Amino acid sequence: MAELKIGSTLVGDGHPCYVIGEIGINHNGDVEIAKKLIEMAEAVGCNAVKFQKRTVEIVYTAEELAKLRENPFGTTNGDLKRGLEFSRAQYEEIDRYCKEAEIAWFSSCWDEGSVDFIEHFHPPCYKIASASLTDDNLLRYTRKMSGKRPLLLSTGMSTLEQIDHAVDVLGKENLIIVHATSTYPSVVTELNIKAIPMLRQRYGVLVGYSGHESGVVSTAAAVVLGACVVERHITLDRAMWGSDQAASLGPAGISKLIQHIRNSVEPAMGDGVKRVYPSELPIQKKLRRK
After folding, report:
1. Which stretches of the chain score pLDDT less than 50?
2. Which residues are within 8 A (CB) of 281 and not within 5 positions of it... i.e. 6 or more apart?
3. Count of C-beta atoms within a 10 Å radius of residue 244
4. Is 107 strand, coil or helix?
């Protein structure tokens, strides 16, 4: 498949890269921070923002939730996980704000109940997180609910055999496989962005890139290698409290990435057909031996 639509935006061969600002949990449970991140993403030219949705008691064991962990919401891991989840009313406000800002939003859902929750807002697509790639029941349910809408499958910490199986479960229709390395932040030597064309050839679907590195050049390079979608975590300030902030791009970083993609990478890629440009002819005449 050479192209598909995320909402009203064509994505794929011959179309601009679709850039996602991953808000994730960098809102720290505060809708006002989420709004500022949405505003920032829209201002620099992101096509969409993405959140993460979990039903805490389903995704985590009681033992995990009871673990001691000092955080802004209390003293346990459960306090933290619950504090980072937005309510229906809060997501209603996020939905309203994104519509007002004219930017798309969607979520990676970590359980079936979260898919039902997010479906209420009719997202333009769904994302399967790398952690959920081996959850067959969630894959089947998300595929069922997504219908004809695109489904992004993140492949961090996954073997080719596991990806093969996930693709078998999901099918290839409207599927975008997203190359990723699941470390936060990732070291450059483990990004392995040459896997992008390999994944495209192996599965015959569109391929994207979700980066967790500190810089932006490698993400721009992923576009050269064929990533039609790129996703980067965004933050107001990398020094803010939160486990994902250090692997995120601040306002200057995400702005620089989009400038690299739009002003340098995409114009430079061309169509791959070797030709002599008219601008070269005077140089040809001047420099070649008669």
Report:
1. none
2. none
3. 20
4. strand
Q: How far is CA 215 from CA 91, 106, 223, in A?
A: 30, 25, 15
Q: Please give the helix or strand (H or E) that residue 32 lies within, else none.
A: helix 31-44
**Beta strand pairing call for 48-53 and 104-109:** parallel
| Start-to-end CA span in the chain (Å) | 48
* Tens-place pLDDT, residues 65-77: 999 999 999 999 9
Helix, strand, or coil here: 170?
Answer: helix
Instruction: Return the CATH superfamily for domain 9-287.
Output: Aldolase class I (3.20.20.70)
Handedness of CA 220, 18, 107, 159 (dihedral sign): negative
d(CA 66, CA 283) in angstroms, rounded, equals 72
Q: Percentage of the chain with pLDDT > 70?
A: 100
β-partners of residue 177 are: 153, 207
3-state secondary structure (DSSP) of residue 40: helix
